[in-house]
Amino acid sequence: MPLTRLDHVNLRTTQLEEMIRWYESILGLTLGPRPNFSFDGAWLYLGDIAIVHIIVIDDDKAVGSEESLKLEHFALRATGLREFEDKLNENNERYRRNDIADFGIAQFNIWDPDGNHIHVDFVLNEED
Description:
Elements: E1 9-13, H1 16-25, E2 30-32, E3 41-46, E4 49-56, E5 74-77, H2 81-90, E6 95-100, E7 105-111, E8 117-123
Parallel strand pairs: 1-4, 5-8
Antiparallel strand pairs: 2-3, 3-4, 6-7, 7-8
């Protein structure tokens, strides 16, 4: 059973609308269809793939196996480094840029409204 790709990331929140707006405006994802689950949430799409699933929780207390979540970050690959950095600055988004020359990567570390750590990776010489 070889893996073929990462399908999606699932995030829990108490502020659904703010999270949707952030993922649409900062990362350019699109709100799209979602199964009729018994709990509220949203699926955000990159093209025709729902890569970020968000579910609503009543409060910030986790239950069961989710009690001690440990995900440090998830990463996305992108193009348009200058435009993305301009967008972050125009929206007063907090970010940390980390250029990794020996791998040819520029990483932008960003945080969504719930504080989830995401980094968006670009080809470093894309600026040239």
